Structures are given as C-alpha cells and as structure tokens.
Amino acid sequence: MDEEITIIDKNTRNEKIKKFFVNNKKKLIIIISIIFLTLLGYLSFDQIKKMNKIKLANQFNSVIINFKLGEKDKIIEELYNIINKKDATYSPLAAYFLIENKLIKDNKEINNLFDILINETNLEKEIKNLIIYKKALYNSNTATENDLIKILNPIINSESIWKSHSLYLMAEYFYFNNEKNKSKEFFNKILVLTNSNRDITLKSKQRLNRDFGE
C-alpha cells in the first residue's frame, strides 16, 4: 500500500513538472536565451578588451623601437593616440615616455597629459595618487603655494601611501621659499603618520634636527 502511494506521488510530481515546463515553455526559452546572450556578450567584450590590450602593447613597443632607431616621425602622434585610449597600463607609460624623453616641453600640454590620466583614465586608487604626486613634483619649481596644495589635496586629505611623500614635498617647497615655520609644520606632520614611508620619516627627522634644532 505504502509503495503504491509512493509511486502515485512520484508520478504526480513528474506530471506537475512536465506540465510546468509545457505551460512555461516560451518563458523558459526566453530566459535561457537571455542568459546565453548575456554570457556570450560578456565573453565577447572580455575578448575584445584582451585584443585591444595586445594591440596597445604592440603599438607601444613599436614606438620604443622606432625611438631607439632614431625614427621619431609620428612617434608623438602614436603616443598621444595611446594616451587617449585611456588604458590603465599603456596610457601612463605613453605619457611618461613623452615627458621623460622631452618629446614635449610645453608646461600646459604636459599638465594636460597628467589631467587625462588623473581625471579620465580608470586607474587603481594608489596609481592615480602616484600620478597626482608626480604632477605636483613636476610643477613644484613654478607653482604657487595654493596651486601646489590644490594638486596634492586629494592625497594629503587621505590615508594614501603617497601621503608622506606629498607632505615632504610641501615641506621642502616651503623651506626653499624661506617659509621655515610652514616647512617645520609639514615635517612634523610626517612624524605622526602611521603609514609614513620609512625613508621619508628618517629624512624628516634629520631635517628637523639639522635645520630646526629639534
């Protein structure tokens, strides 16, 4: 008797499942199709990204080879093209190559390259902070106090690993401009940081001992 009831229950369940699939056949096909197309789209997008990355890598390597061979025609144009792709890896490399090899010398244009990387390129947080610091370092000899602080504020007001570097830059900036009290203030800020760079902390202590008698 119990066995017969079990068989009946099983048949009833199977019938309900079969009926559910028959009644919802169109909906299930649509759902499966959407999942398939979404997965296909994701895989295709990922593949396109990988292909574009390889293309940028080849383009950047070609620029370096042409530069070493002395073939500088179109190098600047190609580097700008890479920068404007706003790739997290090769756009910064292209910008640094332009700046470090003095292929462009106009301050406004160089700052524009920094701004493209900082404001328009999808970079990891600390990579972006490093570029902000490099922009400040580049401008430190010509920028006003307000301009330099404005550049560095995103780092100074954070817990970035580049915070101690930024504070040290400001301390040196004020010392160079004979504003000793402000310089001392920034050196002291470095000493109370919990994540300060060890070398920067040591240099700050030495500067305070040597130049401020502390």
Which features does this protein show?
single chain; 214 residues; mainly alpha; Serine Threonine Protein Phosphatase 5, Tetratricopeptide repeat; 2 domains; 10 helices; 0% strand; flat
What does this structure look like?
This protein has 214 residues and is mainly α. It is 78% helix and 0% strand. The protein has ten helices and no strands. Helix 3 packs antiparallel against helix 4, helix 6 runs antiparallel to helix 7 and helix 9 packs antiparallel against helix 10. The chain is flat, with a radius of gyration of 30 Å. The protein starts with a helix and ends with a helix.
Number of domains: 2
Q: Report low-confidence residues grouped into runs of 5 or more.
A: none
Supply the number of helical segments.
10
The largest sheet is: none
- Mean pLDDT score: 84
The helix/strand series, from N terminus to C terminus, equals: HHHHHHHHHH
User: What is the oligomeric state here?
Assistant: single chain
Extended strand count? 0
In short:
With 214 residues, the protein is mostly helical.
